[in-house]
Amino acid sequence: MTDSTRPRIGLALAGGGPLGAIYEIGALCALDEAIPGLDLNAMDGYVGVSAGGFVAAGLANGLTARQLCTAFIENEGPANDIVRPGLFIRPALAEYARRLALLPAVAARAGYGFALQGRPLLAALEQLGRVLPTGLFANAPLERQVRRLLSAPGRHNDFRHLQAERGRRLVLVATDLDSGEAAPFGLPGWDQVPISEAVAASAALPGLFPPVQLKGPHGPRWYVDGALKKTLHARVLLDMGLDLVLCLNPLVPFDATHARHRVLAQGEERIPNLVDGGLPVVLSQTFRTLIHSRLELGMKGYESSHPGTDILLFEPDHRDGALFLANTFGYGQRRRLVEHAYQRTRADLRSRRGTLGAALARHGLVLNDAVLDDPHRHLLRPSHDQGKTRPGSRAAKALRRLDEVLDDLQRSLAAFEPK
């Protein structure tokens, strides 16, 4: 296939913290194996948000999905490439100190207003809120590690050099804190900041990480997580006139009602009622539901506004309790989660084989059935502990395979229904 006839393909990666990166790496490894003509390091465009920005920056710089897995999950390979999830939970000591320094003046003003001006106590307490840190964890360790990662020969921490020398358009989206508008770092006018700093800004989820000050087209401004505006920001790629856009979204609301009656995969836990999980589980479900509802609206809008582009979305099964309850900071947990994401994406590809195969065929791509149907294929070498795990029963495997076939049949029939 010549350059003039080859399809133009883009990759859009949503956020989700360390869990999002783990899911996307596992899913991308599955896609890389199952679609042999797809080169994840030669996309015509990449857009990333939050943790998806970290993964997109690596892919655009030539790091394969397997190499990202080795560095981020297995903590192996060159020292500069290793990215430990612990980088996400370093206390923001500088932010704490800066806010603490404001306490005497702010407390004096609040006390003066309450005692001498008769202001309500709640107003005084609200004024004291200015001394609270804007984030619990520091951005700097992640930025430094990404900068080291992109400093290796052949890689670029400069959007303009990446575009000029590798022909890769990389866009990392943050949100302007003062205006609420999306900031597409990497597009013309937004490409003068280092990629590593844009990654840190895109991942600065308010409350967890302080805003990041960067110089954009309007001068120095403060930026936070790009997911505040949109979940995927795939329109950046669609407006480039691409033929096919692959979208990965790691965070979905958990459907506990259907999960109760589902055959569980290895490592999954049955969850009868989310309220039993307390506040963290309720907040997680609320956050996931909010961002996913925006994603659904966005996908429908993309189909209407860009009918000439095929858009394929990959995300976890809404009944997947293993990902919903995941703890991403233990080494063994990370290995299990990335393997889980890899295997569940393979199952998703099998269950949608008919519809996905037809969409890919329009762009000269095919699914490798031999790879997808290989029951012995794994992403990671089984660890000592994993080797002790008894495999699922034949009946459970047969039921899961039946689920995949029925899902594929249902989607194929739906394609013929009148709109």
Beta-strand percentage range: 5-15%
Helix content: 40-55%
Rg: 23 Å
Mean pLDDT: 86
Structural class: alpha/beta
Could you give the order of the helices and strands?
EHEHHHHHHEEHEEHEHHEHHHHHH
Would you identify the regions where 5 or more consecutive residues have pLDDT less than 50? 384-393
N-to-C span: 34 Å
Helices, by number, come to 17
The biggest beta sheet reads:
8 strands, mixed
Number of strands: 8
Overall spatial form: globular
Describe the structure.
The protein is α/β, with parallel strands linked by helices. The protein has helices spanning 17-34, 51-60, 65-72, 93-115, 121-128, 140-149, 159-166, 195-202, 235-238, 256-259, 278-305, 321-324, 331-351, 353-361, 369-372, 384-387, 394-414; strands at residues 9-13, 45-49, 170-176, 182-185, 212-216, 219-225, 244-248, 310-314. Strands 1, 2, 3, 4, 5, 6, 7 and 8 form an eight-stranded mixed beta sheet that branches. It is globular, with a radius of gyration of 23 Å. The protein starts with 8 loop residues before the first strand and ends in a 5-residue tail after the last helix.
